[in-house]
Amino acid sequence: MATTADFKPGLCIEFNNDIYTILEFQHVKPGKGPAFVRTKLKSLTNGKIIDNTFTAGVKITTARVVTRPHQYTYKDEMGYHFMDSETFEEVIVEESKIEAHDLLKEGQQVDVMIHDEKGVVLQVILPPYVVLRVTYTEPGVKGDTATSAMKPATVETGARIQVPLFIDNNELIKVNTSTYTYAERVKE
Q1: Range(s) of the domain holding residue 23
Q2: Is the pLDDT of residue 147 over 70?
Q3: The whole model's pTM is what?
Q4: Which residues contact 112 (CB under 8 A, 6 or more apart)?
Q5: CATH code of the domain in which 181 resides
């Protein structure tokens, strides 16, 4: 058991017969009345984001979750297959539990969040940045670099990312997995 004083981003709690992770919270002490905590919660079972207000000091149940390193192996009609890096056991995860599934490439290391008591996969967490090869992009026009203009590019996983005009086909780029944005060019 924990209280609202233990809230922090990323904490997993059991609430309304579901498991939520705290995205953000704000402790509010109004001039009149009791203090309360505003939260933004994300369901780890269905992905919905809700806003909820807790009275300050109320007891909450924390969910026991374990995050283990896994390697993405392949995808088929059953789902995405991951291999535990320590035990070499295979886990199959449906697409809805992977936030940036179109940025996954074979052999990539990810973290898989598992409910410790039920053994159910809750979420697959990609690293903050992934390095991908550009498979197709239109050529940039010479002299068009005075502004920070962007153009669409398709990467090896099939995702479409906006990249600067100087990026060409077959180049490696670093992509932010939470915002789907270009970060930098990577040298081979």
Answers
A1: 2-62
A2: no
A3: 0.78
A4: 67, 68, 69, 70, 82, 84, 91, 93, 121, 123, 124, 125
A5: 2.40.50.140
